[in-house]
Design brief:
449 residues; mainly beta; five-stranded antiparallel β-sheet; four-stranded antiparallel β-sheet
Length: 449
């Protein structure tokens, strides 16, 4: 291979040195079905790039190139192979902009990508507008993305070389073969995680947070369609929430006669309606979008079809939000769970609820900054302050008013509750004491109208 250094005027295209177009970007430990692609992937840009090389170097320029000679010269024009004749970030018809899953098991990420099509503000936050694309004079083959990580937006820069098999992107893409926003975002997210293979299997709620900077909540519907409070989930999803929230669902097993839903597969909830059967019974129906992008399931609404989990992400509305970053330090603030006498040594985060005498809706999310392969079991307890907060001693005999337990080996855990007007203190913790880690605690309070 020949390394080519040229000026921007001569179509020198950016090549990311920290996420190179080879197997190191594809694989981490070769433990997923993705490892079967070893040696079968070529990296192509969406559009032709035209460069000029000395004739003597043309044979070493690579087999995926088209070559043209100019008469009476010792130079040769190299046309790098392309994916599309007229690529764009987004198609004219937004219906063609929806993600379509490839051979990578990252449906959880694609559900979060669907959220961006619903919210232009978030889309511009993740994909800053004004970037030069194919066909524009300032195009350099470089794109910028931003992801919310550990309490702040983190910028990721990539080049536009995409992994392909037979000139077609082998991972996620848009319904339109000319649109590339999904493929580029997926590459940037893979770089954030270390490789494409690291995206194999994940949680929708984690991707939703990374693409919004908000808070995700999970409701389990496996046993019934009621929340822990006994009220129907769907009656709580108001018109305000329809506009300002994103809902996804996940099937934990393939319903009988519905192979299109798959097993452990994530889907986007587009709409929901309450209808009555001929017998007069009321039924809740979900309109779901499958990132496989092949067809819609048209089978019956069987009982097993409602065994799903729902993640609800609040992206707007009258909420007051505050984030606090901290750390558990061995020997001082890493006190462990309530069953350890050192529990009271954990960080004390004050919470003052003043809005509504009848109680205020509060959502608390704890996110640890540890790498995915070294996650601690985390949770938190909320205690009502008795007397002065600075003098309050928390021991095993003091009962919390709200708990997010059992501790879970997750990137983040959350709970939504209703608290009376009072002073509280939140104790985030790992389950085992003396576990060193950093965290971010996000507190949202609903402001009454």
């Amino acid at each position: 291979m020949v390394t080519i250094e040229m000026t921007a005027e001569k179509h020198d295209l950016f090549e990311d040195p920290s996420f190179t177009a080879d197997d190191s970007a594809l694989f981490s430990d070769y433990t997923t079905p993705l490892s079967r692609l070893t040696g079968k992937v070529t990296w192509l840009r969406p559009e032709d790039s035209i460069i000029m090389l000395p004739l003597a170097h043309s044979k070493s320029a690579g087999k995926n190139l088209r070559v043209g000679y100019e008469q009476k010269t010792t130079e040769v024009f190299i046309f790098a192979q392309q994916i599309s004749k007229s690529p764009c970030l987004f198609p004219d018809d937004y219906a063609d902009a929806y993600p379509k899953q490839g051979i990578l098991g990252d449906c959880w990420l694609l559900c979060a990508c669907t959220m961006l099509l619903k919210n232009r503000y978030l889309l511009n936050q993740v994909m800053p507008p004004g970037q030069c694309v194919w066909g524009q004079s300032g195009y350099t083959g470089q794109f910028r993305f931003q992801f919310w990580r550990n309490g702040h937006w983190t910028e990721i820069q990539i080049d536009d070389r995409l992994p392909c098999i037979k000139d077609t992107p082998c991972f996620s893409r848009c319904q339109s073969p000319m649109a590339f926003w999904v493929a580029l975002l997926e590459k940037a997210y893979a770089k954030l995680h270390g490789s494409y293979e690291r995206l194999w299997a994940g949680q929708v709620c984690e991707a939703v947070v990374d693409l919004s900077g908000g808070v995700a909540e999970r409701w389990s519907l496996k046993k019934s369609l009621n929340t822990p409070g006994g009220r129907s989930v769907f009656s709580e999803l108001s018109q305000e929430m329809r506009k300002q929230s994103y809902i996804s669902c996940c099937v934990h097993e393939a319903p009988t006669g519905a192979p299109e839903q798959g097993q452990f597969h994530a889907l986007s909830v587009m709409e929901w309606k309450a209808v009555k059967t001929i017998a007069g019974a009321q039924v809740q129906l979900l309109q779901i979008h499958n990132p496989w992008g092949r067809r819609c399931w048209e089978g019956a609404w069987t009982e097993s079809a409602v065994k799903v989990s729902v993640q609800q992400k609040s992206v707007g509305g009258e909420w007051k939000m505050a984030s606090v970053s901290g750390c558990w330090t061995v020997g001082t603030t890493a006190g462990g769970g309530r069953n350890f006498p050192s529990h009271g040594q954990n960080p004390h985060v004050p919470l003052i609820v003043t809005y509504d005498p009848g109680g205020t809706n509060v959502s608390v999310t704890l996110r640890q900054h540890s790498p995915e392969n070294t996650l601690h079991a985390i949770g938190f307890h909320i205690y009502k302050v008795i007397g002065e907060a600075d003098c309050m001693v928390i021991s095993g005999t003091v009962c919390p008013v709200v708990s997010c337990v059992p501790h879970a080996h997750s990137q983040e855990v959350s709970v939504q509750c209703r608290l009376a007007s009072a002073d509280y203190v939140i104790l985030p913790s790992t389950y085992q004491p003396d576990c060193s880690a950093e965290y971010t605690l996000t507190i949202m309070q609903k402001i009454p109208r």
